[in-house]
């Protein structure tokens, strides 16, 4: 199967071109040359993407009404996925699945990348700088957004099959080992009973009985786990304690989990998830009943899907500083929201067996290889084996990071998006590490692997901007509903939030959502807000711009 070379320079044209100019057709063709001999697909163009943010205007009535600004309408555009974003070892397999299922490539690619990173886990990490001990692990968080029936779940299930096979093999090995352990434990119990008898006899005879208990105690085998589904965070902690390399948690409906973690009574669980994203730190449970449980390294990969409406509502809270504004949603670096193609064709053919064999072998290689097989380094102060960038890749990463840090400090992004992009400090080197090792790289991470990572990060930024801007779509829906009622003369001039909320109109039944819609209308000059002291709580009254009726 041929991988077409993408035109990566089309993304985010407003950024400087020093390192980006090096993401060329030739450099990426070289990265796939071992697997493919030709390429040829016309590049696509994408408009510059900008994310909007809205703030409440000063609470004054203007002396002269300005012309109201248009309300936001629809999603921001976002580019399509290119198979060349992926390691060459898995790209044909991912493309084959997506073509047969007639679903966006992202629906397969994101689960595949998260799964690969979860198997690599803490086995080999990456130190993104030449000399410091800054270290990142390969565990990633991914979220796929699509409408019901868009094939999100079947695509993810197909991409996770290599992981499921590793899980099945590990379970069978554990069952066999546990049978042997049970036999050894039975013998050990008999020996302990006999030791007790011998000890009592020795004590009666006035002899030392301590040697009677020199018994080799069998060790209960621990189950190697790769993937978990619906589990409490305490149970997940138990699994991670036995699996320091990490596991992948898959939730078919991701926002349900996020909303559960938003609740005050689940604050401890939320803190656990936040910590486990890092992949480098330990975690200790202290419970009165169950006692103390220490996790040497909490390393969690997280994957799930959701629907546009659900993620937009959750994003609205993250953007506005609500319960979702502590960096949890921002940790989903592999967040994709692709457009659904209007075209469909019936693809009824056998899977590409060679592509599947190569991809599955990559998962098995990650699981079966030692850090030494990748020529990983170690030092006396950190137990994690690691790789660094080679000289060319280091220069490329340095240019990219300088650009990123400048943008993060520019004040031009919303705080939520700024927080999201700051997590790319982990995402980009982790992806480069996965790319490098998946394509049988040994030793320092190459420039080709880093180019893939940077190209994918630009694509992901565009989709992140779409998702965060969609958080304002809920505000826009409320604003449009309010404006519609105003034009029908159902809302008088000088109204209050309560006047709107108590009506229970469609899209206006939630008080917080009504407030967000009013704030947006004020910001865009459809309304002016005036706060008055009434002896109790201050009340805000809204005046209507006459332009609303034109």
Walk me through the topology.
Layout: H1 25-31, H2 91-101, H3 106-120, E1 125-127, E2 141-145, H4 152-159, H5 161-204, E3 227-228, H6 233-242, E4 247-253, H7 254-262, H8 267-278, E5 283-287, E6 291-295, E7 300-306, H9 308-320, E8 334-336, H10 353-368, E9 377-379, E10 382-388, H11 391-408, H12 415-422, H13 424-438, H14 447-487, H15 497-501, H16 511-523, E11 527-532, E12 539-544
Parallel strand pairs: 1-10, 2-7, 2-8, 3-4, 4-7
Antiparallel strand pairs: 5-6, 9-10, 11-12
Describe the structure in brief.
This protein is of the alpha/beta class. The chain contains 16 helices and twelve strands. The N and C termini lie far apart (58 Å).
Protein architecture, described:
It comes from freshwater sediment metagenome. This is DUF3987 domain-containing protein. It holds the Pfam family DUF3987. InterPro entries: DUF3987. This protein has 550 residues and is of the alpha/beta class. The protein folds into 3 domains: 8-147 and 307-343 and 352-472, no CATH class; 169-213, no CATH class; 227-295, no CATH class. The chain has helices at 25-31, 91-101, 106-120, 152-159, 161-204, 233-242, 254-262, 267-278, 308-320, 353-368, 391-408, 415-422, 424-438, 447-487, 497-501, 511-523; strands at 125-127, 141-145, 227-228, 247-253, 283-287, 291-295, 300-306, 334-336, 377-379, 382-388, 527-532, 539-544. Strands 3-4-7-2-8 form a 5-stranded parallel sheet, sandwiched between helices. A 3-stranded mixed sheet has the order 1-10-9. Helix 2 runs antiparallel to helix 3 (106-120). The longest helix has 44 residues, at 161-204. The radius of gyration is 28 Å and the shape is globular.
